[in-house]
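pinging the channel bc i need a second pair of eyes. not urgent but kinda urgent?? the chain im working w is below, pasted from the shared doc
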Amino acid sequence: MSPLRVTVVGSGNWGSAIAKIVGSNTSKYPDIFHNEVRMWVYEEEVNGRKLSHIINNDHENVKYLPGVRLPTNVIAVTDVKESVSDSDILVWVLPHQFVKRVCDQIKDHVKPGAASLSCIKRSPRCSGTLVDILTYSRTNRYRVFCLNGCQHC
């Protein structure tokens, strides 16, 4: 069995924190996980530099998680389709209002059999977030798991 590839879908403060944990843990288990962890980054400029370049070169998300070093195996990818292609596990951490749009963009690029872990913070007004992921999971035949708790209700 080849190592599993993980993509973190989102790169805000929560996404960067999750990417730090995922990057650290995947590097400890090279027989199970591919060393490179992709993190989809919505490209923007910070102090005249592209955020993706800052993350890839300085290993820090200076806009959303300043002062926290990201593992060198976390790679910022600005094309969401490219970021999810060939991934076995998708970790969803983007703001709930962007889920449907991202699902529409990636629906034909998700590897059949891939698993999704939703760590998306939801509010009662956005109860469709999980529904969007579940709908696309049926279409693309991948599994969906959710992290729930007081911040995820």
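so The radius of gyration is 15 Å. and The longest helix spans residues 13-28. — does that match what u expected or am i reading it wrong
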